[in-house]
Amino acid sequence: MLPSLNEQLDHIKRGAAEIIPEEELVRKLERAIRDRTPLNVKLGCDPSRPDLHLGHSVVLRKLRQFQELGHTAILIVGDFTGMIGDPSGRNKARPSMTLRQTRQNGESYFQQASKILSKDNLKIVYNSDWLGKMTFEDVIKLASKYTVARMLERDDFEKRFRAGEPISVHEFLYPLAQAMDSVAIKADIELGGTDQKFNLLVGRDIQREYGMDPQVIFTMPLLVGTDGVEKMSKSLGNYIAITDPPGEMYGKTLSIPDNLIYDYFVLTTEIPESELAGIKSQLESKSINPRDLKRKLARELVTLYHDREAATQAEQEFDRIFIRKEVPDEVEEVILKNDSGPLTVFQLLVSVGAAKSNGEARRLVNQGGVTIDGSKVTDPNATVIQNAPFILKVGKRKFYKITR
To answer: Quick one: which of 84, 201, 358, 392 has the fewest CB in 10 Å?
Structure first.
């Protein structure tokens, strides 16, 4: 039996950026309760980015909330649309991928998403199952249902058009193909980030063209990364991966700016509303050190993706290394060959795998991020003369025990 309307609305509206239109959501929920028929809640996953971070978890957690209320979560792996490349938020065309690549990435996506989603009322489908069967005639008929003028209303297309940047015709097909996903699975609700709003609205229009009750659009905010400026992205290095080891996840969480603490609690954790109100009050009144709330946030996240014991150990390890300035219990040991001779600092960093190139190694030293037995290294060309073993520290969290 589905929970009451108010119970459901209180649960699923948490953190939402926009619900379009909200009155239709209410109507669909009332019908589901009356008919005892769960709604089909759709989320499309982009297989071009198989490594999931907390930014991806925002919509995945919203999908999980619908599952907890008894609705059916439908995760669509865009193995076919991945060959087109989603142009959302892009100032140029995204490189296309092969069907084999998108399938492999889709499998990786699901393995990670299973850390968040329940397996009980979950359907996983590949959109190549229906899009791959469309004939050229079908595509022409679909394309006839939307105008170029409407496509150019989309921000990224409009900017590229005004700047004289090329827009390939196949990019116009992406939102139409995504809309056909909603037709194929009879979506009642579609989730997405705010950058997906245009695509999701196209889905409503195309469903109407096929005589269907249009889906309700549910957009979630884009999570700002640990730098406090850009949205979380692996390419920008401001991400917290959901597969990060406990210690790394804990440490990265403590690095977020204070002004993001509340948003992270709302969007990335399962902290109840009553606690959220208290956290917001503490931040506004400045009655608590923000660092203490970040430690709580870090424990919550490590517990979600690992367990409570791992969270406790991660916190203890963090305190030992960064507060008491001790070396962690487990340190990667690197054995240098006896015939390797004297090494410069940058050669040592490359040889142990702490840097991928001599240039990166030099930058690490110049930025003050390298110490040997607690002493900061300032010259990347200096010869390492310490008798092994010694402790090499690179950045904030990488330790190596160097032996011969």
So the answer is: 358
